[in-house]
Amino acid sequence: MTIQKITPAGGLVGGGSTPTVQIGIDPAVVPQLQTDNTFAGSQTIEGDLQVSGTVNAAQLAVDSTAPVANLNASMLQGVPVSKLARKDEYNDFELGQSIGGTLSVTANSNDNPYPELGMSAPGIVAFGCFDHTEETIEAIPNAGTGVVGIGGNQINEGLGSGGDGVHGIGGDQIGQGGGGTGVTGFGGGGSDGQWGGIGGIFIGGEAENGDGGAGLSVSGGNAELITREPYAGEFHMAGNGIKARGGWSWSAAAAPGMGGLFFGGDGQYMNGSDGIWGVPGYGPSRKQDGRAGVFEGDVLVMGKLHVSGHKSFRIDHPVRPAEELLIHACVESSELLTIYSGNTALDKNGRGVVTLPDWFEALNTDFRYQLTSIGAAAPLFIEQEIKDGKFVIAGGSQDLKVSWQITAIRHDHHAQAEPLEVEIKKQKHERGFYVHPEAFNEDFKKGLHWATYPAIMKDIADRHAAALARSPSATGSNTSPNRIKRPRTPVHAARSAK
Questions:
Q1: pLDDT, mean of residues 46-59
Q2: pLDDT for 491
Q3: Residue 6: in which H helix or E strand, if any?
Q4: How far apart are CA 406 and CA 360, in angstroms?
């Protein structure tokens, strides 16, 4: 068979008739090795594609779970590469980011952008947005918050609670030194003549048919049983629930800040609540319980002071100060009673004039007198009652020593505006409850505060029962009880182990 003519097709070029025939590959259709090739349509590769150079494409789709090394692209899924976050580099996000899973951040200890904070590099630093809006009568603009935490909702029908808005866990100190702080808040600086920002605001949640949540629940850290050298024999204490210090004042025109300022809740249908309620820590027995409050320094009470127990002073024993204390009870009365006393010597006429302070009659009224002669009997009497700042004693002999005592009733402006109420009706919901229920053979749940604050009182009772249950007398052991461990995330545990 003799071929007379060839017509190229299917990626071939050339052709011709015998005896001259030339056939070649069309480079526009068939890709060639060791040279550049341009593909006008889509290409499908069923095997592996290995590229040692650069792939330039207006749109490149890679449908594979295998990593693609050294892939250079200006856009991915229509997003410019300049807008994507980069690993091991600082990234700025101009718009909000939504993370459906858990965000785990580990700071680089060698790269601290804020050394002025006095700590190692923080894991997250968030800045609220600036506000350039002009202030109006209707609205005062505020800049944005750096971090807002919103706990997850509890949607099951059980009694579980919603998630925490923010949960902070301080880092452990692996070597010597203390642990880190769980959450630290610094208020922002105020402009000239204005006020500084608040370090933290906590507001308890509302409940339609139950108790509202606490604005802040704080527990001090436990102290372990110390037996390890070199700490054996030292005396330490567990952490305080709250440690607060007022701000210092560096100006003669500004008062220093208070360590704490507390407001009780208002009541529309009953009395308002207490500003502060202190509950003691419980010891092995009732006599070893702590105090509900200790004040180091002077105490000022602007209103009334009600005490259901004893009022007394407590000092080191004058004779045995290193081993004992001395306690004296206060004198009590159903009146706003004042007591004054002194000694005087009578003159040659058997009289004695006692001069009183200039405020005496402005403060007191309804005077009562007592006179006692010393060294000899005498028919003493008050010759002149208190008038113009003095009173006169008579009926004795020259140089007779006389002890005198005056009791009176306050009648200053405040005493008249706030007279002592000796008998007070209990509020309706308090009736049937007692200040000291045990004195009337009643159950402790008949205590007066159970009528108004049952949730708080239950919490106090549960704490007391738990303290008694873990005391050495109840457990028969002096070792540390089972403690509530603070939660640990896998990331935190892994970091602590390094």
A1: 70
A2: 40
A3: strand 5-6
A4: 11
Cα angle, residue 273 at apex, residues 197 and 165 outer, rounded to 5°: 45
Q: What's the mean per-residue pLDDT of the chain?
A: 77
Separation of alpha carbons 418 and 415, rounded Å: 5
**Residue from 412, 449, 411, 417 nearest 433 by CA:** 449
Q: Which residues contact 23 (CB under 8 A, 6 or more apart)?
A: 6, 8, 12, 13, 14, 15
> Alpha-carbon distance 147 to 184, whole Å?
13
Q: What is the CB neighbour count within 10 angstroms for residue 447?
A: 19
Backbone φ/ψ region at 358: left (φ over 0), alpha (ψ -120 to 50), beta: alpha
At residue 45, the 3 state secondary structure works out as coil
Distances in Å between the alpha carbon of 6 and those of 2, 9, 15, 484? 11, 10, 5, 92
Tell me the average pLDDT across 12-29: 71
- pLDDT of res. 425: 92
Say if residues 160 and 154 touch (Cβ distance below 8 Å): yes
Give phi and psi for 9, each to the nearest 5: -160, 165
pLDDT digits (tens, 9 = 90+) for 404-413: 999 999 999 9
Q: How is 56-78 classified by DSSP, letter by letter?
A: --SS-----SS--TT---SEETT
Distances (CA, A) of 92 to 84, 89, 97, 126, 336: 9, 10, 11, 11, 70
Q: What is the Cα–Cα distance from 203 to 212, expressed in whole angstroms? A: 10
What is the C-alpha separation between 25 and 440, in angstroms, rounded? 114
Alpha helices (H) in 272-392, listed in sequence order: 360-363
Element (H, E) at 316: strand 312-316
**Structural tokens at position 208:** 């339609």
* Cα gap 272→59, rounded to integer Å: 70
352-355/390-394 β-pairing? antiparallel
Residue in the structure block whose two tokens are 């500003």: 275
pTM, rounded to two decimals: 0.57
- Walk across the sheet containing 352-355 and list its strands: 352-355, 390-394, 381-387
* pLDDT score of 322 more than 50: yes
**Half-sphere exposure in the Cβ direction for 57 (13 Å, CA):** 17
Residue type, 312: S
Among 271, 277, 264, CA closest to 425:
271
